[in-house]
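hi got a favour to ask and not much time before my train. below you get a single protein, a line of residues and a line of whole numbers that encode the local backbone shape. could you go over both lines and see whether the tokens make sense for that sequence. a few lines back from you is plenty, here it is:
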Amino acid sequence: MIKIDDFFKGGTPLGIAIGIGATVLATVVVPVLPALAKAARPTARAAIKSGILLAERGREFMAEASEELEDILAEARAELQRENTMNQPESSEYGEASTHQDDL
């Protein structure tokens, strides 16, 4: 048999209260929604415009950063290539070394 304590332990009264509150709130809020939407429209439009401007500035910044990184990468590759050519002995030195070995 169902006891009255089981009714309160299960949270049923809380659910009923929430349902009644939501119904009362909906009857007050729903008629006001179109007016709120009209009032919020300029604010939403301004927020969207700000977002678009921010996105464009972000793209410009990323393009400049990418270009700068490509320049640094090209400079580093050129330095490595210069260092490699400076560290390699000339082919005439190899030729002289081989002739000296033949004399031995």
